[in-house]
Amino acid sequence: MPAIAIVGANWGDEGKGKITDYLAAQADYVVRFQGGNNAGHTIINAFGKFALHLLPSGVFYPKVINVIGPGVALNLRAFLTELQGLIDRGVPAPQIKVSNRAQLLLPYHQLLDGYEEERLGARSFGSTKQGIAPFYADKYLKLGVQVADLYDQSRLQERLEQALAAKNILFQHLYQKPVMTAAEVMAHLAADTETLAPYVADTLTLLQDGLAAGKMVLLEGQLGALRDPDHGIYPYPTSSSPLAGFATVGAGVPPQQITRIIAVTKAYSSCVGAGPFVTELQGGAAEELRRRGGSAGEYGATTGRPRRVGWFDAVATRYGCRVQGATEVALTNLDVLGYLDEIPLCTAYAIDGERTTTFPTTGPLERAQPVLTTLPGWRSDLTAIRCYQDLPRQTQHYVETIEELIATSIRWLSVGPERNAMILR
Ligand code: GDP
To answer: In this predicted model, what pLDDT tens digit does every residue of 225-261 receive, in sequence order?
Structure first.
Protein backbone atom coordinates (compact mmCIF):
# COMPACT_ATOMS: atom_id res chain seq x y z
CA MET A 1 0.00 0.00 0.00
CA PRO A 2 1.30 3.42 -0.82
CA ALA A 3 1.41 6.65 1.09
CA ILE A 4 -0.83 9.24 -0.58
CA ALA A 5 -0.26 12.95 -0.05
CA ILE A 6 -3.25 15.31 -0.19
CA VAL A 7 -1.89 18.81 -0.60
CA GLY A 8 -2.88 22.29 -1.76
CA ALA A 9 -2.04 23.58 -5.25
CA ASN A 10 -2.70 27.22 -4.36
CA TRP A 11 -2.84 29.58 -1.37
CA GLY A 12 -4.59 27.17 1.03
CA ASP A 13 -8.31 26.60 1.71
CA GLU A 14 -8.61 24.46 -1.43
CA GLY A 15 -10.84 21.90 0.30
CA LYS A 16 -8.12 19.45 1.41
CA GLY A 17 -10.04 18.59 4.60
CA LYS A 18 -13.09 17.48 2.64
CA ILE A 19 -10.99 15.35 0.27
CA THR A 20 -9.02 13.81 3.14
CA ASP A 21 -12.20 13.05 5.09
CA TYR A 22 -13.60 11.39 1.96
CA LEU A 23 -10.50 9.28 1.23
CA ALA A 24 -9.86 8.44 4.90
CA ALA A 25 -12.62 5.82 4.64
CA GLN A 26 -9.98 3.57 3.02
CA ALA A 27 -7.00 4.67 5.11
CA ASP A 28 -5.26 3.17 8.14
CA TYR A 29 -3.33 6.32 9.10
CA VAL A 30 -3.95 10.01 8.45
CA VAL A 31 -0.95 12.21 9.21
CA ARG A 32 -0.48 15.94 9.67
CA PHE A 33 3.13 16.73 8.76
CA GLN A 34 3.51 20.53 9.05
CA GLY A 35 1.87 23.73 10.24
CA GLY A 36 -0.14 24.21 13.39
CA ASN A 37 -3.52 25.49 14.39
CA ASN A 38 -3.18 28.54 12.15
CA ALA A 39 -5.54 27.29 9.46
CA GLY A 40 -8.68 25.21 9.42
CA HIS A 41 -9.97 22.28 7.42
CA THR A 42 -13.74 22.35 7.05
CA ILE A 43 -15.44 18.98 7.17
CA ILE A 44 -19.14 18.22 6.86
CA ASN A 45 -20.25 14.65 7.52
CA ALA A 46 -22.81 12.64 9.48
CA PHE A 47 -21.49 14.08 12.78
CA GLY A 48 -22.03 17.69 11.71
CA LYS A 49 -19.85 20.54 10.49
CA PHE A 50 -16.34 20.88 11.90
CA ALA A 51 -13.33 23.13 11.44
CA LEU A 52 -10.27 21.04 12.29
CA HIS A 53 -7.16 23.02 13.11
CA LEU A 54 -4.60 20.57 14.46
CA LEU A 55 -6.36 17.23 14.34
CA PRO A 56 -5.86 15.15 11.20
CA SER A 57 -8.98 14.78 9.06
CA GLY A 58 -9.22 11.03 9.76
CA VAL A 59 -10.62 11.61 13.25
CA PHE A 60 -14.16 10.74 12.19
CA TYR A 61 -13.25 7.11 11.52
CA PRO A 62 -12.63 5.05 14.68
CA LYS A 63 -10.41 2.60 12.76
CA VAL A 64 -8.03 5.32 11.52
CA ILE A 65 -4.90 6.15 13.52
CA ASN A 66 -4.42 9.91 13.37
CA VAL A 67 -0.83 11.05 13.64
CA ILE A 68 0.68 14.41 14.53
CA GLY A 69 4.08 14.19 12.89
CA PRO A 70 7.34 15.77 14.08
CA GLY A 71 6.96 18.57 11.52
CA VAL A 72 3.86 19.99 13.22
CA ALA A 73 3.78 23.04 15.51
CA LEU A 74 1.95 21.58 18.49
CA ASN A 75 0.01 24.02 20.64
CA LEU A 76 -0.82 21.58 23.40
CA ARG A 77 -3.75 23.44 24.88
CA ALA A 78 -5.29 24.03 21.44
CA PHE A 79 -4.81 20.36 20.54
CA LEU A 80 -6.46 19.02 23.71
CA THR A 81 -9.31 21.55 23.53
CA GLU A 82 -10.00 20.63 19.91
CA LEU A 83 -10.00 16.92 20.76
CA GLN A 84 -12.35 17.41 23.71
CA GLY A 85 -14.62 19.59 21.53
CA LEU A 86 -14.97 16.75 19.04
CA ILE A 87 -15.86 14.23 21.75
CA ASP A 88 -18.34 16.69 23.30
CA ARG A 89 -20.12 16.82 19.96
CA GLY A 90 -20.64 13.06 19.88
CA VAL A 91 -17.71 11.94 17.72
CA PRO A 92 -16.32 8.64 19.08
CA ALA A 93 -12.92 9.26 20.75
CA PRO A 94 -10.49 8.98 17.83
CA GLN A 95 -7.20 7.10 17.85
CA ILE A 96 -4.41 9.68 18.02
CA LYS A 97 -0.65 9.46 18.19
CA VAL A 98 1.59 12.47 18.72
CA SER A 99 5.23 12.25 17.73
CA ASN A 100 7.62 12.41 20.66
CA ARG A 101 9.77 14.59 18.37
CA ALA A 102 7.03 17.11 17.55
CA GLN A 103 7.89 20.49 19.02
CA LEU A 104 5.71 22.59 21.27
CA LEU A 105 4.26 25.91 20.30
CA LEU A 106 4.57 27.82 23.55
CA PRO A 107 2.82 30.91 24.96
CA TYR A 108 5.78 33.14 24.15
CA HIS A 109 5.60 32.20 20.45
CA GLN A 110 2.05 33.48 20.32
CA LEU A 111 2.96 36.67 22.17
CA LEU A 112 5.92 37.32 19.88
CA ASP A 113 3.76 36.84 16.79
CA GLY A 114 1.20 39.37 18.02
CA TYR A 115 3.81 41.89 19.17
CA GLU A 116 5.66 41.69 15.87
CA GLU A 117 2.52 42.19 13.77
CA GLU A 118 1.70 45.18 15.97
CA ARG A 119 5.21 46.61 15.47
CA LEU A 120 5.06 46.12 11.70
CA GLY A 121 1.65 47.79 11.51
CA ALA A 122 0.70 48.39 7.87
CA ARG A 123 3.80 46.42 6.74
CA SER A 124 2.64 43.24 8.49
CA PHE A 125 2.48 39.89 6.63
CA GLY A 126 -1.06 38.99 7.63
CA SER A 127 -0.11 36.49 10.33
CA THR A 128 -2.91 34.62 12.08
CA LYS A 129 -0.99 35.44 15.30
CA GLN A 130 -0.97 31.83 16.45
CA GLY A 131 2.81 31.91 16.95
CA ILE A 132 3.72 29.79 13.93
CA ALA A 133 6.58 31.93 12.56
CA PRO A 134 8.33 32.37 15.96
CA PHE A 135 7.82 28.64 16.57
CA TYR A 136 9.61 27.59 13.37
CA ALA A 137 12.25 30.29 13.90
CA ASP A 138 13.01 28.70 17.27
CA LYS A 139 13.11 25.22 15.75
CA TYR A 140 15.84 26.26 13.32
CA LEU A 141 17.63 28.34 15.98
CA LYS A 142 17.74 25.08 17.93
CA LEU A 143 15.73 26.64 20.72
CA GLY A 144 12.68 24.41 20.33
CA VAL A 145 11.18 22.10 22.95
CA GLN A 146 10.24 18.57 21.88
CA VAL A 147 7.24 16.68 23.24
CA ALA A 148 9.64 14.17 24.85
CA ASP A 149 11.18 17.03 26.87
CA LEU A 150 7.86 17.46 28.70
CA TYR A 151 8.58 14.23 30.56
CA ASP A 152 11.98 15.31 31.85
CA GLN A 153 11.42 18.36 34.05
CA SER A 154 15.03 19.43 34.51
CA ARG A 155 15.68 19.21 30.78
CA LEU A 156 12.45 21.11 30.12
CA GLN A 157 13.46 23.89 32.48
CA GLU A 158 16.88 24.17 30.89
CA ARG A 159 15.43 24.31 27.36
CA LEU A 160 12.89 26.95 28.36
CA GLU A 161 15.46 29.10 30.14
CA GLN A 162 17.68 29.01 27.10
CA ALA A 163 14.81 29.92 24.76
CA LEU A 164 13.52 32.69 27.00
CA ALA A 165 16.84 34.46 27.57
CA ALA A 166 16.84 36.15 24.17
CA LYS A 167 13.07 36.53 24.01
CA ASN A 168 12.92 38.47 27.23
CA ILE A 169 15.34 41.02 25.81
CA LEU A 170 12.98 41.47 22.86
CA PHE A 171 9.93 41.60 25.11
CA GLN A 172 11.48 44.30 27.29
CA HIS A 173 13.43 46.41 24.88
CA LEU A 174 11.88 45.98 21.44
CA TYR A 175 8.22 45.59 22.38
CA GLN A 176 8.16 47.17 25.86
CA LYS A 177 6.22 44.21 27.29
CA PRO A 178 6.58 42.13 30.48
CA VAL A 179 9.12 39.30 30.59
CA MET A 180 8.21 35.62 30.99
CA THR A 181 9.87 32.98 33.19
CA ALA A 182 10.48 29.28 32.62
CA ALA A 183 8.49 28.58 35.79
CA GLU A 184 5.43 30.35 34.34
CA VAL A 185 5.64 28.31 31.13
CA MET A 186 6.13 25.08 33.09
CA ALA A 187 3.08 25.85 35.22
CA HIS A 188 1.08 26.50 32.03
CA LEU A 189 2.14 23.10 30.64
CA ALA A 190 1.79 21.01 33.79
CA ALA A 191 -1.80 19.77 33.58
CA ASP A 192 -1.72 19.26 29.81
CA THR A 193 1.47 17.21 30.04
CA GLU A 194 -0.33 14.44 31.90
CA THR A 195 -3.35 14.54 29.57
CA LEU A 196 -1.07 14.24 26.55
CA ALA A 197 0.95 11.29 27.89
CA PRO A 198 -1.19 8.43 26.49
CA TYR A 199 -1.00 9.88 22.99
CA VAL A 200 2.78 10.26 22.78
CA ALA A 201 4.51 7.76 20.49
CA ASP A 202 7.45 7.06 18.23
CA THR A 203 5.42 7.81 15.11
CA LEU A 204 8.27 7.16 12.68
CA THR A 205 8.40 3.51 13.72
CA LEU A 206 4.60 3.33 13.78
CA LEU A 207 4.24 4.63 10.20
CA GLN A 208 7.17 2.79 8.69
CA ASP A 209 6.08 -0.49 10.26
CA GLY A 210 2.55 0.24 9.03
CA LEU A 211 3.72 0.86 5.46
CA ALA A 212 5.85 -2.29 5.54
CA ALA A 213 2.77 -4.24 6.64
CA GLY A 214 0.77 -2.89 3.67
CA LYS A 215 -1.25 -0.24 5.52
CA MET A 216 -2.51 2.86 3.73
CA VAL A 217 -1.18 6.21 4.91
CA LEU A 218 -2.70 9.58 3.98
CA LEU A 219 -0.45 12.60 4.41
CA GLU A 220 -2.52 15.73 4.87
CA GLY A 221 -0.98 19.07 3.96
CA GLN A 222 -1.93 22.40 5.43
CA LEU A 223 -2.14 25.55 3.25
CA GLY A 224 -0.82 25.25 -0.31
CA ALA A 225 2.15 25.28 -2.68
CA LEU A 226 2.17 29.06 -3.11
CA ARG A 227 2.73 29.44 0.64
CA ASP A 228 5.90 27.35 0.57
CA PRO A 229 8.88 29.27 1.99
CA ASP A 230 11.10 28.27 -0.96
CA HIS A 231 8.76 28.00 -3.92
CA GLY A 232 5.92 30.28 -2.87
CA ILE A 233 5.19 34.00 -2.84
CA TYR A 234 8.00 34.98 -0.50
CA PRO A 235 7.86 37.00 1.82
CA TYR A 236 4.23 35.94 2.22
CA PRO A 237 4.63 32.19 2.74
CA THR A 238 3.72 30.16 5.76
CA SER A 239 6.64 29.09 7.96
CA SER A 240 6.77 25.38 7.13
CA SER A 241 6.75 23.65 3.78
CA PRO A 242 3.25 22.57 2.65
CA LEU A 243 4.74 20.45 -0.13
CA ALA A 244 4.27 16.71 -0.58
CA GLY A 245 8.05 16.50 -0.75
CA PHE A 246 8.26 17.77 2.81
CA ALA A 247 5.78 15.13 3.99
CA THR A 248 8.60 12.66 3.96
CA VAL A 249 10.41 14.82 6.55
CA GLY A 250 7.48 16.16 8.54
CA ALA A 251 5.82 12.74 8.86
CA GLY A 252 8.88 10.48 8.68
CA VAL A 253 7.97 8.26 5.73
CA PRO A 254 10.43 7.17 3.04
CA PRO A 255 10.16 9.37 -0.10
CA GLN A 256 9.74 6.41 -2.44
CA GLN A 257 6.63 5.34 -0.52
CA ILE A 258 4.70 8.47 -1.56
CA THR A 259 3.47 7.19 -4.89
CA ARG A 260 0.39 9.35 -5.30
CA ILE A 261 0.15 13.09 -4.77
CA ILE A 262 -3.33 14.58 -4.98
CA ALA A 263 -3.17 18.33 -5.46
CA VAL A 264 -6.39 20.02 -4.41
CA THR A 265 -7.55 23.18 -6.13
CA LYS A 266 -10.79 25.14 -6.23
CA ALA A 267 -12.73 25.81 -9.43
CA TYR A 268 -12.07 29.51 -8.67
CA SER A 269 -9.37 31.13 -6.51
CA SER A 270 -9.43 32.15 -2.87
CA CYS A 271 -6.66 33.44 -0.64
CA VAL A 272 -6.41 34.46 3.00
CA GLY A 273 -3.69 36.86 4.04
CA ALA A 274 -1.36 39.22 2.27
CA GLY A 275 0.61 38.84 -0.96
CA PRO A 276 0.08 39.13 -4.71
CA PHE A 277 -3.08 37.50 -6.04
CA VAL A 278 -3.30 38.13 -9.77
CA THR A 279 -6.93 37.20 -10.49
CA GLU A 280 -8.34 38.93 -7.41
CA LEU A 281 -11.80 40.41 -7.85
CA GLN A 282 -13.05 43.57 -6.23
CA GLY A 283 -16.47 45.10 -5.63
CA GLY A 284 -19.77 43.40 -6.40
CA ALA A 285 -18.33 40.48 -8.38
CA ALA A 286 -16.04 39.63 -5.44
CA GLU A 287 -18.84 39.94 -2.91
CA GLU A 288 -21.08 37.61 -4.88
CA LEU A 289 -18.40 34.92 -5.31
CA ARG A 290 -17.39 35.27 -1.64
CA ARG A 291 -20.99 34.90 -0.50
CA ARG A 292 -21.60 31.84 -2.68
CA GLY A 293 -18.22 30.14 -2.19
CA GLY A 294 -17.37 27.19 0.06
CA SER A 295 -19.85 25.81 2.55
CA ALA A 296 -20.83 29.14 4.15
CA GLY A 297 -19.17 31.82 2.09
CA GLU A 298 -15.43 32.37 1.79
CA TYR A 299 -14.46 33.27 5.34
CA GLY A 300 -11.39 31.85 7.09
CA ALA A 301 -12.12 28.65 9.08
CA THR A 302 -9.73 29.79 11.86
CA THR A 303 -9.83 33.55 11.70
CA GLY A 304 -13.27 34.32 10.21
CA ARG A 305 -11.44 36.79 7.95
CA PRO A 306 -13.14 37.37 4.58
CA ARG A 307 -11.11 35.50 1.99
CA ARG A 308 -9.91 37.30 -1.11
CA VAL A 309 -11.50 35.68 -4.15
CA GLY A 310 -10.86 35.62 -7.89
CA TRP A 311 -11.18 33.58 -11.06
CA PHE A 312 -9.32 30.32 -11.54
CA ASP A 313 -5.64 31.00 -12.15
CA ALA A 314 -4.18 28.35 -14.46
CA VAL A 315 -0.67 29.85 -14.31
CA ALA A 316 -0.49 29.66 -10.51
CA THR A 317 -2.22 26.26 -10.37
CA ARG A 318 -0.05 24.63 -13.03
CA TYR A 319 2.96 25.86 -11.07
CA GLY A 320 1.40 24.65 -7.81
CA CYS A 321 0.80 21.18 -9.26
CA ARG A 322 4.34 21.05 -10.59
CA VAL A 323 5.89 22.12 -7.28
CA GLN A 324 3.78 19.53 -5.50
CA GLY A 325 4.69 16.85 -8.02
CA ALA A 326 0.97 16.16 -8.41
CA THR A 327 0.01 12.85 -9.95
CA GLU A 328 -3.66 13.90 -10.02
CA VAL A 329 -5.91 16.79 -9.09
CA ALA A 330 -9.06 17.10 -7.01
CA LEU A 331 -11.09 20.09 -8.23
CA THR A 332 -13.44 21.34 -5.52
CA ASN A 333 -16.26 23.86 -5.29
CA LEU A 334 -17.32 23.27 -8.88
CA ASP A 335 -20.96 23.70 -7.84
CA VAL A 336 -20.25 27.27 -6.68
CA LEU A 337 -19.90 28.59 -10.24
CA GLY A 338 -23.41 27.57 -11.28
CA TYR A 339 -24.71 31.17 -11.02
CA LEU A 340 -22.57 32.56 -13.84
CA ASP A 341 -23.53 33.01 -17.51
CA GLU A 342 -19.88 33.15 -18.44
CA ILE A 343 -16.82 32.12 -16.43
CA PRO A 344 -13.52 33.98 -16.84
CA LEU A 345 -10.36 31.92 -16.50
CA CYS A 346 -6.77 33.18 -16.28
CA THR A 347 -4.59 31.45 -18.90
CA ALA A 348 -1.49 33.67 -18.79
CA TYR A 349 0.00 36.75 -17.15
CA ALA A 350 0.96 40.01 -18.83
CA ILE A 351 4.05 41.44 -17.11
CA ASP A 352 5.58 44.70 -18.36
CA GLY A 353 3.91 44.13 -21.74
CA GLU A 354 5.15 40.51 -22.06
CA ARG A 355 2.84 37.50 -22.01
CA THR A 356 3.96 34.53 -19.91
CA THR A 357 2.59 31.27 -18.58
CA THR A 358 5.53 30.81 -16.19
CA PHE A 359 4.85 31.70 -12.56
CA PRO A 360 7.36 34.44 -11.71
CA THR A 361 9.09 35.55 -8.53
CA THR A 362 7.23 37.93 -6.27
CA GLY A 363 8.47 41.25 -7.72
CA PRO A 364 7.19 40.67 -11.27
CA LEU A 365 4.18 38.78 -9.86
CA GLU A 366 3.10 41.97 -8.15
CA ARG A 367 3.00 43.71 -11.56
CA ALA A 368 1.25 40.83 -13.37
CA GLN A 369 -2.11 41.36 -15.02
CA PRO A 370 -4.32 38.35 -15.74
CA VAL A 371 -4.90 37.35 -19.35
CA LEU A 372 -8.45 36.05 -19.21
CA THR A 373 -10.44 33.83 -21.50
CA THR A 374 -14.16 33.35 -21.00
CA LEU A 375 -15.96 30.02 -21.06
CA PRO A 376 -19.73 29.51 -21.14
CA GLY A 377 -21.34 28.89 -17.74
CA TRP A 378 -23.82 26.08 -17.06
CA ARG A 379 -26.36 27.93 -14.96
CA SER A 380 -27.51 24.89 -13.03
CA ASP A 381 -27.16 23.08 -9.72
CA LEU A 382 -24.52 20.33 -9.77
CA THR A 383 -24.76 19.25 -6.14
CA ALA A 384 -26.75 16.04 -6.74
CA ILE A 385 -24.67 14.82 -9.70
CA ARG A 386 -22.37 11.84 -9.01
CA CYS A 387 -21.34 10.79 -12.50
CA TYR A 388 -19.10 12.80 -14.85
CA GLN A 389 -21.22 12.02 -17.90
CA ASP A 390 -24.24 13.59 -16.18
CA LEU A 391 -22.55 16.96 -15.80
CA PRO A 392 -23.67 19.67 -18.23
CA ARG A 393 -21.60 19.88 -21.41
CA GLN A 394 -20.35 23.35 -20.37
CA THR A 395 -19.13 22.02 -17.01
CA GLN A 396 -17.22 19.22 -18.71
CA HIS A 397 -15.73 21.79 -21.08
CA TYR A 398 -14.65 23.96 -18.10
CA VAL A 399 -13.05 20.97 -16.34
CA GLU A 400 -11.29 19.74 -19.47
CA THR A 401 -9.99 23.23 -20.32
CA ILE A 402 -8.50 23.56 -16.85
CA GLU A 403 -7.03 20.07 -17.08
CA GLU A 404 -5.22 20.95 -20.26
CA LEU A 405 -3.96 24.26 -18.90
CA ILE A 406 -2.60 22.79 -15.67
CA ALA A 407 -1.17 19.71 -17.40
CA THR A 408 -2.39 17.35 -14.68
CA SER A 409 -5.32 14.97 -14.85
CA ILE A 410 -8.35 15.95 -12.81
CA ARG A 411 -9.44 12.73 -11.19
CA TRP A 412 -11.82 14.00 -8.52
CA LEU A 413 -14.56 16.61 -8.73
CA SER A 414 -16.22 17.94 -5.64
CA VAL A 415 -19.70 19.36 -6.16
CA GLY A 416 -20.69 20.24 -2.61
CA PRO A 417 -19.15 20.51 0.84
CA GLU A 418 -20.65 17.24 2.16
CA ARG A 419 -18.58 14.07 2.22
CA ASN A 420 -20.42 12.23 -0.54
CA ALA A 421 -20.69 15.15 -3.00
CA MET A 422 -17.91 13.70 -5.13
CA ILE A 423 -17.47 12.59 -8.72
CA LEU A 424 -14.65 10.21 -9.61
CA ARG A 425 -13.58 10.43 -13.25
P1 GDP B 1 -8.86 23.27 3.47
O2 GDP B 1 -8.12 24.04 4.51
O3 GDP B 1 -8.07 23.08 2.23
O4 GDP B 1 -9.46 22.01 3.99
O5 GDP B 1 -10.09 24.20 3.02
P6 GDP B 1 -11.12 25.00 3.94
O7 GDP B 1 -11.92 24.06 4.72
O8 GDP B 1 -10.41 26.10 4.65
O9 GDP B 1 -11.98 25.72 2.82
C10 GDP B 1 -12.69 25.01 1.86
C11 GDP B 1 -14.13 25.49 1.88
O12 GDP B 1 -14.80 24.93 0.77
C13 GDP B 1 -14.90 25.04 3.10
O14 GDP B 1 -15.92 25.97 3.38
C15 GDP B 1 -15.49 23.71 2.62
O16 GDP B 1 -16.62 23.30 3.36
C17 GDP B 1 -15.85 24.07 1.25
N18 GDP B 1 -15.94 23.02 0.25
C19 GDP B 1 -15.07 22.01 -0.01
N20 GDP B 1 -15.45 21.37 -1.13
C21 GDP B 1 -16.57 21.99 -1.58
C22 GDP B 1 -17.40 21.83 -2.73
O23 GDP B 1 -17.16 21.00 -3.59
N24 GDP B 1 -18.44 22.71 -2.83
C25 GDP B 1 -18.72 23.68 -1.94
N26 GDP B 1 -19.77 24.47 -2.14
N27 GDP B 1 -17.94 23.86 -0.85
C28 GDP B 1 -16.88 23.04 -0.70
So the answer is: 999 999 999 999 999 999 999 999 999 999 999 999 9
Which pLDDT does position 301 carry in this prediction?
Answer: 66
Q: Give 193 Cα–ligand 1 centroid separation in angstroms.
A: 33
Three-state secondary structure call for residue 295: coil
CB-based contacts of 33: which residues, under 8 Å, 6+ apart? 69, 71, 72, 219, 220, 221, 246, 247, 249, 250, 251
* Angle subtended by helix axes 107-120 and 182-196, to nearest 10: 120
Q: Is 336 in the pocket of ligand 1 (CB under 6 A)?
A: yes
Whether 326 contacts 261, CB under 8 Å: yes
Question: Is the distance from the beta carbon of residue 263 to the nearest atom of ligand 1 less than 6 Å?
Answer: no
How many other C-beta atoms are found inside a 10 Å radius of the C-beta of residue 197?
12
Write the CB contacts of 159 (distance below 8 Å, at least 6 apart in sequence): 143, 144, 145, 149
C-alpha 32 – ligand 1 centre gap (Å):
18
More confident call, 231 vs 126: 231
Element holding 165 (H helix, E strand): helix 153-169
Active site annotation includes 202: no
Specify whether 13 is catalytic. yes
Whether pTM > 0.85 for this model: the answer is yes
Using one digit for the tens of pLDDT, what is the confidence trace for 352-384?
A: 999 999 999 999 999 999 999 999 999 999 999
